[in-house]
């Protein structure tokens, strides 16, 4: 692995900082936080980027902080509609590592999730992972013991609880050479995916984080497009870094925000913009 030379004096208390976004979904968030308790790599912190959740989320975090063996920071902002880009920028600033992984509060990580991201990291690149989508019935069924034991990642256990056969099940089954082959031949592009992507903090700061004009729909991809414009490349790890995605409704998705975000992304790509004026540092 290429050695990364830090060019700015970041505090580097942990090897990796994990940002987990959430909004009023404490049942799902609890399952996700138990997933990080299973990690084979232990030198990490979790930053919860909370876009305005109510008291039940505060209560959950206070309770689970006493039960897990890793540090949790809760970064919260007032509920002003879908402002995920804004809270993610606050979380980026709070990270105490020079390497950042971003995921969501509905994505349970397999026990080697952090280990894979760290093993694959390389200067000049960001890593692009995917997720394995579960139906609502199984999402609700999964409990703490299923996560700690790892059986919620076992295809046979999932099929016994209603999962259908699919080529996508290889995301959970693939190991070794087969993982590498699937990463190589997948038609899916290696984009920055908010549910499973990682990169160097200095690169993310160089593009000024997320564009806070953007609500739901492609704000993560737009960050990746600015990283590409900066000269950062991407590596595909969707079959290596595995997380399972719990089902939920998406009431915050509107045609208006999708259209606005597409226009911003179009401008970013066509004009090769590297640094947003609407990010961590405001012009």
Q: What can you see in these coordinates?
A:
This protein is an alpha/beta fold and 283 residues long. The chain has one domain: Spore Coat Polysaccharide Biosynthesis Protein SpsA, Chain A, CATH 3.90.550.10. The protein contains 12 helices and 10 strands. Helix 1 packs parallel to helix 2 and helix 11 packs parallel to helix 12. The longest helix has 16 residues. The protein is globular, with a radius of gyration of 18 Å.
Keywords, separated by commas or semicolons:
alpha/beta; Spore Coat Polysaccharide Biosynthesis Protein SpsA, Chain A; 16% strand; 12 helices; 7-stranded mixed sheet; 283 residues; disordered N terminus; globular; 38% helix
Summary?
By secondary structure, the protein is of the alpha/beta class.
How much of the polypeptide forms β-strand, as a percent range?
A: 15-25%
Mean pLDDT: 93
What topology, given as strand order, has the largest sheet? 3-2-1-4-8-6-9
Q: How many whole angstroms does the radius of gyration measure?
A: 18 Å
N to C succession of SSEs: EHEHEHEEHEEHHHHHEHHEEH
**Into which percent range does the helicity of residues fall?**
25-40%
* Corresponding CATH architecture: Alpha-Beta Complex
Distance between the termini: 37 Å
* Low-pLDDT segments: 1-9
Number of spatially distinct domains? 1
- Continuous helix count: 12
CATH-defined superfamily: Spore Coat Polysaccharide Biosynthesis Protein SpsA, Chain A
Molecular shape: globular
Annotation, overall tally of beta strands = 10
Name the structural class. Answer: alpha/beta
CATH fold group = Spore Coat Polysaccharide Biosynthesis Protein SpsA, Chain A
The largest sheet, given as strand count, sense and whether it forms a barrel, is: 7 strands, mixed
